Recover the amino acids of this structure.
């Protein structure tokens, strides 16, 4: 079915839809927010999306039951607190929450039994258990065959490897984190497609579960619930949940791009077809938007991934190291008594001369938390160079390394997909990092457009608003609205400024 036509048909038959606001539950690996999104009419035909954060909360892994896990019970309590806050704010402003959309990080899941109970707190992708599962999986499914079907970049924490470590999967279902939250809100079990595409058990061409892989790995064929697409309704709030958060039981939970990068890419303010994007946060997702997956051996060897986006697009990208490196350094420095503000740290780093040492930010050596500054310095020593034990120097090394990695990934994506680009859009928290954006422009030789910062929340709200009939059109229309709702910065390559 043509997704755009489907939404247009839904919004056309019932007259003018009631105006409402939308609650976006947006959770990353280190923090989460509940945000109210409003579609506002401006002068003439100008419209914009207005976002209001009503609740913020921390998130992180904990040592629990012999591994690194998410404290999901506490996380869900924060989601409910955020929805309660959203209900209060909306009521004060005489508004009605039309729907709720949920996006989180990818690959992790919780196991739910027949009674709907979470059998254990979900493991984090940063847990070491995944290492031992890679070889057994590849003995049953050749990596070339895996890629030819799923198009998924090899990462040792992909869901397929995590599931291979489980000992008791009979009688349970695996719900990816946003689907698990939606289930606890509605009682309905579904798997949203953009996140399903990150599992390593999803057919990139057919857009369905690769059930043959489940069988080959000895996994139950119905391990995952049925698929659902962005814009579809998951269900309505359970009565006990509605009473707890102060919302009507008729409030819908609507599937969005539940993989946070899928929502972020939906809000890239591109007015051109030939663009690259960098969703810059804890991780960096660097790639192109395509209509068809690239499943060649060359693509596999380059470790590119083909994940689903909103409206059936393909997010052809590499999952790369990101600002986790810097945030972990800051955590270590704070514990040592060095608490310089990030702006001052980046200013000091920018003042250093170019051409300093670089690391490979994708190295699995940097995945786990623990004294990141010293690990970066050790990695530099491994290249035969030296890096001063100085926060500004280490910060500049991180920024130079990320920019160089972005440039390499974009060049490879253009070649492998036969799809040239002339502008790079940086969205997410990293779009506020002027030094990283400028270094990216210099390294790629392409114009960089930075923003929106809140791309994920914008994409989440826009998909909900389209499902409700408050906005219409395809990705071009959603992106135009996202761009008009954001302050964007532009960076030109150093050579073009000479």
């Amino acid at each position: 079915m043509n997704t755009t036509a489907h939404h247009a048909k839904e919004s056309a038959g019932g007259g003018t839809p009631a105006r409402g606001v939308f609650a976006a539950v947006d959770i990353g690996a280190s923090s989460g927010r509940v945000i109210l999104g409003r579609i506002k009419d401006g002068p003439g035909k100008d419209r914009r999306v207005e976002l209001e954060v009503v609740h913020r909360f921390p998130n992180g892994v904990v040592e629990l039951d012999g591994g690194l896990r998410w404290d999901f019970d506490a996380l869900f309590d924060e989601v409910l607190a955020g929805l309660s806050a959203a209900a209060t704010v909306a009521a004060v402003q005489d508004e009605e929450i039309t729907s709720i959309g949920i996006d989180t990080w990818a690959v992790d899941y919780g196991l739910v039994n027949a009674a709907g109970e979470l059998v254990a707190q979900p493991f984090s992708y940063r847990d070491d258990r995944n290492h031992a599962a890679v070889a057994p999986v590849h003995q049953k499914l050749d990596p070339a065959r895996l890629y030819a079907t799923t198009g998924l970049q090899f990462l040792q924490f992909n869901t397929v490897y995590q599931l291979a470590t489980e000992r008791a999967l009979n009688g349970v279902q695996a719900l990816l984190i946003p689907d698990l939250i939606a289930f606890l809100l509605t009682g309905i079990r579904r798997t949203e497609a953009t996140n399903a595409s990150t599992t390593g058990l999803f057919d990139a061409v057919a857009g369905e579960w690769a059930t043959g892989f489940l069988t080959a790995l000895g996994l139950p064929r119905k391990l995952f619930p049925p698929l659902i697409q962005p814009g579809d309704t998951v269900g309505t709030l359970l009565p006990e949940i509605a009473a707890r958060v102060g919302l009507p039981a008729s409030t819908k939970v609507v599937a969005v791009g539940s993989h946070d990068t899928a929502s972020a890419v939906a809000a890239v303010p591109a007015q051109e077809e030939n663009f690259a994007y960098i969703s810059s946060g804890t991780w960096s997702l660097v790639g192109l938007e395509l209509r068809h997956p690239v499943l060649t051996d060359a693509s596999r060897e380059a470790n590119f991934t083909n994940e689903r986006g909103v409206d059936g697009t393909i997010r052809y990208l590499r999952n790369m190291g990101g600002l986790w490196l810097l945030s972990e350094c800051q955590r270590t420095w704070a514990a040592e008594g060095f608490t310089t503000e990030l702006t001052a740290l980046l200013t000091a780093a920018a003042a250093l001369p170019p051409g300093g040492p670089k690391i490979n930010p994708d190295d699995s050596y940097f995945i786990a938390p623990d004294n990141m500054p010293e690990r970066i310095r050790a990695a530099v020593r491994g290249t035969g160079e030296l890096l001063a034990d100085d926060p500004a120097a280490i910060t500049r090394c991180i920024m130079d390394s990320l920019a160089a990695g972005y440039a390499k990934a974009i060049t490879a994506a253009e070649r492998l997909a036969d799809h040239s680009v002339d502008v790079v859009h940086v969205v997410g928290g990293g779009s506020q990092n002027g030094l990283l954006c400028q270094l990216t422009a210099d390294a790629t030789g392409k114009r960089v457009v930075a923003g929106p910062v809140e791309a994920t929340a914008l994409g989440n709200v826009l998909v909900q608003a389209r499902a409700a009939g408050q906005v219409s059109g395809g990705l071009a229309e959603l992106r135009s609205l996202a761009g008009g709702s954001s302050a964007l910065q532009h960076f030109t390559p150093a050579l073009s400024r000479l």
In short: Residues 1-18 have pLDDT under 50 and may be disordered. The first helix runs from residue 3 to 12. The longest strand covers residues 47-58.
